[in-house]
Specification:
Blueprint: E1 39-46, H1 50-65, E2 70-78, H2 82-92, E3 97-98, H3 101-106, E4 112-115, H4 122-131, E5 135-139, H5 146-159, E6 163-166, H6 173-183, E7 190-198, H7 215-218, H8 222-238, E8 242-250, E9 255-257, E10 264-266, E11 272-279, E12 283-290, E13 299-306, E14 309-314, E15 320-325, E16 336-339, H9 362-375, H10 385-404, E17 408-409
Parallel strand pairs: 1-2, 1-4, 2-3, 4-5, 5-6, 7-12
Antiparallel strand pairs: 7-13, 8-11, 8-17, 9-10, 11-12, 13-14, 14-15, 15-16
């Protein structure tokens, strides 16, 4: 049985915190209107770019796909530039706009604040939203520093509302199935993990500078942008905690042209990060995150080796899972492909017939589903801010290890 036991089922009773008393919403036309069986909750999103578009797709879709005790209404979107924000609202389906995130948090029709902004803004927005009694969804990595993440996690524990960190790849059905098979003991005791996240969008040294290349804005480079995903995925899949790391990081291009052509700016983050890790339970692992893997567009690759078998996943083939069952006779053994599109696979009963593939955007809809279910009284929201803090501590240990050139312990 999957850990997500059938979409189209309410994941809990009505009555979660910060859910309004409005009656069941009816099916309506028009962008921004919610459809579902439960009460409505107003969503306010900060950020209008890539992640804002992905999250908007999820909010537009979730209640039209899943039966949930809470229905999301796309109340308002916030961005700094009025014209761009208005255009984003019209394109993405938001009912209103704000140009100051504080005004968005203060809105009476916003019950949940969705943070899709650079890392240097996460803590301030999240803390304000939690203090205002709002639910929070915050993109990864949770913060730029451990201290910020600790404050956010503490505030979330005390708030009495629901807070989730956006490690969306947990919601890829094949990844969730991979975790279920591990939990069922299908590969035995895990001995080794190898995980990498490979992209190539910075291989051209003339590619323009962006905020992702600034330590002040992003916290770190490939380490936080990509490495955070593999750290969280391994924690999710194995249940093991990182105990110590030995790392190196490298910046290949130290300066890049500004987008407006007025000069150049220094690159103050890593372009690649590689590290060894010791995890609880005697698990050892190798990890890599880079934006310089020529030809690799979005290759999140994870392999788990256990005493009874191996499981492997590649995001560029996200509907598939590789499984080697070591209990089979040697004459019959070999890796087999599991096509994760069956209705009893995680999340899949709400979607298409077997063999009709899902894409990148569906994981965001599944994230919204689980968050709304938690708000409606269902299972607690995971990954929580405490999960985000755990990943932040690993990223911090990797950075310190690379700087000090020594094995470095993590704190958990």
């Amino acid at each position: 049985m999957s850990s997500v036991d059938g979409a189209n089922r309410a994941s809990g009773a009505d009555g979660g915190d910060r859910v309004s008393d409005s009656p069941r919403v009816s099916t309506v036309d028009g962008a921004g209107d919610a459809v579902g069986r439960g009460r409505t909750i107003g969503v306010g999103m900060v950020g209008t770019a890539f992640m804002g578009a992905a999250h908007s797709q999820a909010w537009r879709t979730v209640n039209r796909v899943f039966e949930l005790p809470v229905a999301a209404r796309m109340a308002a979107i916030c961005g700094r530039d009025p014209a761009r924000t208005e255009a984003a609202a019209n394109r993405l389906g938001w009912a209103a706009t704000e140009t100051d995130w504080r005004a968005l948090v203060a809105r009476d029709d916003v019950d949940l604040v969705d943070i899709c902004t650079p890392g240097d803004t996460h803590a301030e927005i999240a803390l304000a939203a939690l203090a205002a009694g709002k639910h929070v969804l915050c993109e990864k990595p949770l913060a730029n520093t451990v201290a910020e993440a600790e404050g956010m996690a503490a505030a979330a524990r005390d708030a009495g509302t629901v807070a989730m960190c956006g490690f969306t790849y947990r919601r890829v059905p094949a990844v969730t199935l991979m975790r279920d098979l591990v939990a069922a003991g299908r590969i035995g005791r895990i001995r080794q993990v190898r995980a990498c996240y490979l992209q190539d969008w910075l291989i051209d040294p003339a590619a323009p500078w962006t905020w992702r290349l600034s330590a002040d804005r992003a916290g770190s480079g490939a380490l936080g942008d990509l490495g955070a995903h593999v750290v969280d995925a391994v924690r999710f899949l194995t249940g093991a905690e990182f105990e110590a790391v030995s790392a190196l990081t490298e910046t290949f291009v130290a300066e890049r042209p500004l987008p407006d052509g007025t000069g150049s700016a220094p690159v103050t983050v890593d372009d690649a990060a590689l590290f060894l890790a010791r995890l609880s339970g005697g698990v050892v692992g190798t990890f890599e995150a880079t934006r310089y893997a020529t030809g690799r567009k979005n290759a999140l690759r994870i392999e788990l080796n256990g005493t009874l078998g191996t499981l492997a996943f590649d995001l560029e083939r996200l509907n598939e899972l590789e499984f080697f069952d070591g209990t089979q006779p040697a004459a019959e053994a070999g890796f087999r492909r599991i096509l994760v599109t069956e209705p009893d696979h995680p999340y899949l009963s709400a979607w298409w017939p077997p063999g009709h593939l899902l894409g990148y955007e569906h994981a965001f809809t599944h994230q919204a589903r689980d968050l709304l279910a938690a708000i409606g009284g269902g299972p607690p929201a995971r990954p929580s801010f405490d999960d985000g803090l755990a990943a932040q501590r690993v990223l911090d240990a990797v950075g310190r290890s690379a700087r000090d050139r020594t094995w470095t312990t993590t704190v958990h």
